[in-house]
């Protein structure tokens, strides 16, 4: 039977509302103690966001990270940023000497590291690691080069092979072809996709075949390589290559006009990377968009829903995978229109959340910051949540069944742009600096 759409008066009972006192990452954590029962023994706690680059989502994740590390012994923070580049911030939080601005600009992809709130994340992790015998590490889970360049992953693999297999030289045409459409940042994405599309089909095929040859060589010579290099170095290089191969496959899908296939490639691979990290860490805090972490198909306008990372992880991990989704009522969100590339980075959320959405239901419950544990609702409250059919992801709505997608939902009354970090921007590519200089925060 099809659920009836919610009206604007639909709301949860007061018993379903768990007020949260603050988003301040440095504040006392006592208001989060209700999480102990909800989390249980889960090995991966995923924290979603409705859109990237909002101050409030950064602060929420920072605060939850603190709680999960300090109270539950979580040892890794994995986020929607490049896996290959993530080695740089991981080294820094463990005591590395690089300038933090350089680390933020070059160790995090897709503009994720260019914000003061992300600086606070990393600085807290470094302070924690200096004072404990149980450090927390940083990992990226996503494609290299902000999903517009194969070069970071390819260069990492070539550097490893120079040590493990010094008599071998990779076909130089592989890197030459990758360089022909490489981009330096997310702002170069349209130009990079256009350049890839202009490659001759035979050239694209040769690139794909060359990457496959590299993987075959690395897997066949694993024991030989391990006699001369550390196991971790080998495993990281092989993971870097696998992710780079996925990015190549994603570009091939886009060139064929198959955006759905591209999304499927990405979601499965980032799930593989989370599982790779889980093989090295006891418990992981996973930070990514709601559409990635949810146990429900991910959808963007104009594209068929695709199996999400969260669905893959739920299938593999069962109850060891717990998802905290997020909603918001008002404020500014990431601009997804073409003028983003000209420096209009954010746009106003359009009005109150639409009736029938999870955001509207949550906004009607409480004026402030709060959470709802979907696994411990009364029958009436559970029925109200089951009547929800969609959720706002920034500037668009996507179909969702919240009771299936999430374990917990945190509602943020208002979201605002994060604050640009000038030290990180100083190390960013020119086109990034130019776009940020044209943005006029309110």
TrEMBL record:
GO terms for molecular function: hydrolase activity. It is an enzyme of class 3 (hydrolase). SUPFAM superfamilies: EreA/ChaN-like. Transmembrane segments: none annotated. It holds the Pfam family Erythro_esteras. It comes from the Bacteria. Its EC number is 3.1.1.-. Gene3D superfamilies: Biosynthetic Protein domain, EreA-like (biosynthetic domain), EreA-like, domain 2. Keywords: Hydrolase. InterPro entries: Emycin_Estase, Hydrolase/PRTase-associated. This is Erythromycin esterase family protein. It comes from Nonomuraea roseola.
């Amino acid at each position: 039977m099809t659920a009836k759409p919610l009206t604007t008066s639909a709301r949860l009972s007061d018993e379903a509302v768990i007020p949260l006192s603050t988003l301040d990452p440095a504040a006392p954590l006592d208001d989060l103690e209700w999480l102990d029962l909800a989390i249980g023994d889960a090995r991966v706690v995923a924290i979603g966001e409705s859109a990237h680059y909002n101050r409030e989502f950064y602060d929420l994740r920072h605060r939850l990270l603190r709680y999960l590390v300090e109270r539950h012994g979580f040892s890794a923070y994995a986020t929607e940023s490049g896996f290959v580049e993530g080695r740089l911030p991981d080294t820094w939080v463990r005591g590395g000497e690089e300038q933090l601005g350089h680390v933020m600009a070059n160790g995090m992809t897709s503009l994720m590291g260019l914000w003061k709130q992300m600086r606070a994340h990393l600085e807290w992790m470094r302070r924690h690691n200096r004072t404990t015998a149980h450090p927390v590490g940083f990992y990226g889970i996503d494609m290299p080069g902000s999903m517009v360049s194969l070069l970071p992953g390819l260069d990492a693999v070539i550097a490893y092979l120079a040590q493990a297999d010094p008599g071998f030289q990779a076909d130089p045409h592989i890197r030459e072809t990758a360089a022909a459409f490489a981009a330096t940042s997310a702002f170069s994405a349209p130009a990079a996709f256009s350049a890839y599309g202009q490659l001759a089909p035979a050239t694209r095929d040769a690139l794909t075949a060359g990457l496959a040859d590299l993987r075959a060589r690395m897997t066949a010579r694993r024991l030989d390589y391990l006699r001369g290099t550390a196991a971790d170095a080998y495993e990281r290089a092989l993971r870097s290559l696998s992710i780079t191969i996925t990015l190549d496959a994603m570009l091939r899908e886009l060139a064929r006009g198959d955006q759905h296939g591209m999304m499927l490639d990405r979601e499965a691979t980032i799930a593989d990377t989370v599982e790779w990290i889980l093989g090295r860490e006891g418990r992981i805090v996973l930070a990514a968009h709601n559409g990635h972490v949810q146990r429900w198909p991910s959808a963007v306008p104009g594209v068929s829903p695709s199996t999400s990372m969260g669905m893959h992880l739920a299938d593999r991990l069962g109850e060891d995978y717990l998802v905290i989704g997020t909603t918001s009522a008002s404020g500014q969100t990431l601009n997804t229109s073409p003028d983003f590339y000209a420096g209009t980075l954010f746009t106003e959320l359009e009005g109150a959340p639409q009736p029938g959405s999870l955001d509207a239901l949550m906004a009607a419950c409480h004026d402030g910051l709060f959470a709802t544990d979907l696994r411990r609702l009364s029958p009436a409250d559970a029925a109200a949540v089951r009547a929800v059919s969609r959720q706002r992801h920034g500037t668009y709505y996507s179909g969702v069944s919240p009771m299936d997608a999430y374990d917990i939902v945190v509602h943020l009354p208002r979201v605002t742009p994060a604050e640009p970090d000038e030290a990180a921007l100083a190390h960013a590519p020119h086109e990034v600096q130019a776009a940020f200089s044209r943005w006029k925060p309110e």
